[in-house]
Amino acid sequence: MVWTMDQKLTRRVHQGHLRIFIADDHPVVLSGMKMLLQADPEFDVVGEAADGPTALRRAIELQPDVAVFDLSMPGMYGMEVIQKYLAARPKARVVVVSVQEDGANLRRLLKLGVAGYILKRSATDELIRGIHAVAKGGVYLDPAIAGQALGRVVHAAPTNLGETSQISHLSSRELDVLRLASVGHSNKVISAKLQVGPKSVETYKARAMEKLGFTNRVELIRFALDMGWLENSGL
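Given the sequence above, the corresponding structure tokens read:
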């Protein structure tokens, strides 16, 4: 049997073997993250780096299940590291750990394909939870910034004709469900807002994702950002 990358990762998630790579230019922070992750029996820290170029080279070489990058690293800024890393490994799972609470940076990272964003001040509580979520194919944003970053659903016009064509294949209910799902609402909340059953919500969401060719939430968030469905909330 030939396993795809996602299938292999899902299998390792269930078996409790996740290979993690970490990069941060502060030795104390790097050491602290390593100790925190090594305390989880499901994680195996396979490599680390303290500067941008080394982080990029080592992450590509090691091909971890999840790569954790800081944004402020010498030699090459973290945003560039992540962009080049995801260009080399488009399906890689990336979590950013940063002191920055800048919404513009966060939106750029989400468009690049970053699946997790954790603030350093809450990394002790959120990092392990975030990595587990990202490894399972989800998106995880630090609760302290998620609400500001995603804002609320807005009825903005599509930004180009290609997007207009894409959403024209969706029913009005599928579109409503997808908009609400893109900002993180659960099926239960969407069900209450739209006054339809939770199972119907799941059906509408699955149909919409299939019509748009999306396989995960990262793709949905990228699309929602491009569509203007997410309000900036002043960030």
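DSSP finds twelve helices and six strands in the chain. Try to locate this feature in the token string yourself.
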